[in-house]
Design goal:
Layout lengths: L19 E6 L6 E6 H8 L3 H6 L9 H4 L6 E8 L5 E2 L6 E8 L2 E6 L9 E7 L6 E8 L3 E8 L10 E7 L3
Length: about 170
């Protein structure tokens, strides 16, 4: 290997965290050739939660475990099937449970709480008919929200098929 150029070495196409790289530390000062693991390189470049929340760093990579900390990311979404007796769909995200509180009212429990009740969201009643329904977020807390649907006459009414929701804000 000592008599080969780097371009002549065998390429590693599936590096893992414990693989080693050669690096030059402090090239402008007192250069030193050192080793570093792939994992340490990635950790050194990965955005922290604080950097994701401010969204100002342009020299960081975002890992899947940190992506949801950016304010623009959806923090919770879900949907139900069944109008009168809603069932939380398995593909919902960060939704711990739902409770059918009353006619036209659903309480959503958020898994990973928001940092305050100052978050925003949308909800939509799902219908198979042309029945006009409106949906609103009635009571917001850090870990739950009450959704309501009503008819065009503002009378509480269950959605025709189910509920859909999505929330954004600071965790």
């Amino acid at each position: 290997m000592a008599d080969q150029k780097i371009t002549q070495l065998t390429a590693e196409t599936a590096p893992i965290g414990t693989d080693l790289l050669v690096m030059v530390d402090d090239p402008a000062g007192t250069p030193a050739t050192e080793k570093v693991t792939m994992q340490d390189v990635v950790q050194g470049l990965a955005a922290t939660q604080a950097e994701q929340e401010t969204g100002t760093a342009v020299n960081r990579i975002v890992t899947p475990g940190r992506q949801h900390f950016h304010l623009s990311a959806i923090k919770c979404f879900g949907f139900t099937t069944g109008a009168g007796t809603p069932t939380l769909h398995a593909n919902s995200y960060n939704t711990t449970s739902i409770t059918d509180t009353a006619l036209g009212r659903l309480t959503v429990t958020i898994g990973n709480d928001f940092s305050s009740a100052n978050w925003c969201g949308t909800c939509t009643p799902t219908n198979t008919t042309n029945a006009n329904r409106m949906c609103s977020l009635v009571t917001k807390a850090v870990g739950s929200v009450i959704l309501e649907t009503s008819s065009a006459a503002t009378t509480l009414a269950d959605p025709g098929v189910g509920w859909d929701w999505q929330f954004t804000g600071d965790l």
